[in-house]
Amino acid sequence: MEKQIERRILTCFLIFVLLAFILFLRIAYLTQGSGLAAVGQAQSTQTLRVASNRGMIYDCHLRPLVNQGILYRAAVMPTEQAVQTAVRILPDKSTTILELARERKPFLLEFPTPYVYSKGINVFEVYERYNDAPLAPHIIGYTDGSGTNGMAGIELAYNDYLTHSDAVIDVTYQADVTGNVVEGESPRTNKNRYDIKEGVVLTLDEEIQKLVRKACQEAVFHKNTAELAKDPTEQKAMEYGGALVMDIYTGNILACVSYPDFSQNDVASSLDAPGSPFLNRCFNAYSVGSPFKLTIAAAALENGISRYYTYTCKGYENIGGQIFYCNNLAGHGKIDMGGAVEESCNTYFIHLMELLGPETVMRMIQAMGFGSGDVLADGIGSAAGFLPELEQLRMMPAEAANLSFGQGKLLATPLQLVKMVSCIANGGNRVTPRLVEGFTNEDGTQIISREPIYAANPVITQRTASILQEFMIGVVEEGSGVYAKPNAGGAGGKTGSAQTGIFIIGDEDAEDVEIVHAWFTGFFPARAPKYAIVVFAEGGESGAKAAAPVFKIIADGLAEMEGIQPEKTDDKTPSFPVELENNNE
Length: 585
Hints:
The protein is α+β, with helices and mostly antiparallel strands. The strands form nine sheets. Strands 12-11-25-24-23 form a five-stranded antiparallel β-sheet. Strands 2-10-20-21 form a four-stranded mixed β-sheet, with no helix packed on it. The longest helix has 31 residues, at 2-32. The protein is elongated and about 130 Å long. It starts with a helix and ends in a 23-residue tail after the last helix. 45% of the residues are buried.
């Protein structure tokens, strides 16, 4: 019995010794092995991400459209000296700084100056991706809160290309086993490819973009004649609308401005803002009005109707029992095609629609690009707008009459109208809009890969285009577009005031007011045109008064860029107030 007890004790002892030996070996392995060494190394440092960067976005002349600003970002150690220095520099943020320091971890602050000399503080110049005054937010788009992922516009469309995970500034600190930074140890800085220069090149021209923004903000126009009569100082700048400038031969979009816009540095503040600031109105569809008459005129000229064909406007036209009024209720009398364009005579174009028939007109409308959208980049495109069905036009003459002067169910985008103007101005070829020119080399000094320029599609003859150009020049020189006439170079264009059928409900003492959109579509200069320009003022009421003055400022700026000098003439462009009819303009 005693021997059995002894054997059991011995067995237990041997098992204990064996377990102790295994435990010893395990501890030795963990102490000397690579696994614990790696964990210990990770626990002995802390890395602070100071900044990350993305690929560049350039204009057509390789001028940067992002990363134009500089911020001074400081990496601060939670030491007494560093914290006291930070509080002296940013006294209004002292509470926040002290709270960050209590966590015993390094933290980031933005300083107003790079000239800070204190142990424990390292100041870096980092790029500010967007300016506080946005240049082209609807085109460029914006990134998420971290600045690493594109959320809209070009930033989203080319996110994979623009994202560079190694384009960073990091600061690494020594830390003790508890994770707290060790004082007295100098941090290591890793600035890896942060100054990246390769990027996407847009067709936008920075100078023209600035010009168009300035024109939309500074053009002063009188809201309407009634208000002007009550108060001669009544003025209103553009609130909702936009403007486009296009190269008439390549389809390159040189400027694209939409209002209201938003801050790319504070997207959240615009989420609930009135006026849908994230909507790019240049690519959205609206009621058009009289600029559409140019398409009807093109169809007439292409189908054998002479520019000198005359019609007697009596101020209205009866179509199937429905009365359509001209903008001149007294009637224009005997008028030819050029006069009808200059005076924006509705009934003349109703008559042309009857002569041509819906089929002929619809072919021209679709050939000009109406009824179909454009894809400018992945996720960036324009609306198709809306065209009435051909069968509906055949069965309902009143619907065809509405279409003839750009009213009724027709919806079109400013981009479609600038394509129409380009076709007329370049001699008859429909161009494909372009927004992206290509991609740069690594140092951003040249374009090494270009996006294709699509071949122009002939739509109208050179003769028809020349006649329409002459009509449009007449609009600016003598017709409803006199407020668009530039100081140099001349221009051709067409005003428009489009009824929408949408009313603002008045109170007991006021009538309901219909929302009327204002347009001016045109080209510059008058001879040997180069630019197509469209200005759209949502709810602007009068194309002559709300949109034409914006066009003039743009054209004057382009003339200065082109070195076009004013001609000495005796012409005196009317100044406000001047009565210009705008109903159904």
